[in-house]
Amino acid sequence: MADPKRIVADVAIVGTGGAGLAAAIEARGTGAKVAMVERAETMGGASIVSGGGCCMAGTPLQSSKGIHDTPDQAFEDWVAWGGGAADEPWARFYLEHSLHELYLWAEQLGVHWQDLNQPEGNRVPRWHRPAEGGFGITSALIEAVKACGVYEIHTATEVTRILTRDGRACGLSGVNTKSGDPLEISSKTVVIAAGGFNSNLDMILEARPDLKRYRIMAGAGLGATGAGHKLASEVGAYLTHMDHIWFYVFPTPDHRDPTGKRGIAFRGTPGFVWVNQQGRRFHNESLTRGASATLALMA
To answer: 93 and 150 in contact (C-beta within 8 Å)?
Structure first.
């Protein structure tokens, strides 16, 4: 095998979806040298094909529509909806910073927050949709990453190992999936932002063995295989809330997938009606989130 290409950085980031891009922008803001690694051939991860909606409280868009909201109200709803499973310190931190460090921060990068939705469990509309959905917000983040001087961006590169020294992460090693050339990054910090695992059926069933009696189709991004979870676990990280899995339970087999294992979901169209095989409506279609719609469909 050829000698690896060696890079020295302050921060090494695995993944170029929304989380990885935001981490890169923030790190560069402190003057850090950043190196990013992405398994896909293009940047954006699952974020760039997502709906792009974000839960935020007390925003100008809410105010413009006569909606009064506060982080305290949002926190109460979040904890009640979580049924005791919510990570309360994180929920509190996120909501209290959602105005300045998400809404206004993204707006300064060129994101236009377009409209609102009110998912179940929220007393007021808090789901903010950016113009052009996930493509709009992620494209803005990609442009910001390039503009702030992140020059080491390695796509089509699989991270194979997090490097450690004296019990601390000190970089990563990987390989270019097209050329086979190895890569090694030495860094002071490693950020794993490699996405979820909803395209890895084995991991889903390991976390939720009760779902084995159902036919489950993969519907997340193609890269959502849990590779980041594996990298973290191998260096001693512990994983929490793995059984809290979100996916749409009303997919149709994707005609473009010859294996029949991937699904596509029809959603977001106003006025849709749900019927069963006998042609009867079986649910209040305005309640289309996990707690009610999922239970109705699975029944």
So the answer is: no
Strands 263-264 and 127-130: unpaired
Phi, psi of 272 (to 5 degrees): -70, 155
Task: Match 């473009």 to its residue by tokens.
Answer: 256
- Exposed (0-12), middle (13-18) or buried (19+): which is 49, by Cβ within 10 Å? middle
- Residue 218 DSSP class: B
- Asked if residues 186 and 6 have their Cβ atoms less than 8 Å apart, the reply is yes
Residue holding tokens 């469909």? 297
- What does the block give as tokens for 228? 């980041």
Place of tokens 């991937």: 262
Distances (CA, A) of 279 to 13, 256, 275, 285: 50, 27, 5, 15
In tens digits, what is the pLDDT along the chain, a chain of 299 residues? 678 899 999 999 999 999 999 999 999 999 999 999 999 999 999 999 888 999 999 999 999 999 999 999 999 999 998 888 889 999 999 999 999 999 999 999 999 999 999 888 899 999 999 999 999 999 999 999 999 999 999 999 999 999 999 999 999 999 999 999 999 999 999 999 999 999 999 999 999 999 999 888 888 888 899 999 999 999 999 999 999 888 777 788 899 999 888 988 876 677 788 888 899 999 888 776 667 777 888 78
DSSP state for residue 211 in the 8-state scheme: G
pTM: 0.91
Amino acid identity of residue 75, one-letter, is F
User: If you search the block for the tokens 């293009």, which residue do you land on?
Assistant: 42
- Residues contacting 258, CB < 8 A, separation 6+: none
Cα separation, 190 vs 34, in Å, equals 10
Maximum distance among all Cα pairs of the chain, rounded to whole angstroms: 64
* Rounded Cα distance, 233 and 266, in Å: 35
The structure tokens listed for 140 are 């803005």
**Residue 297 CB neighbour total at 10 angstroms:** 14
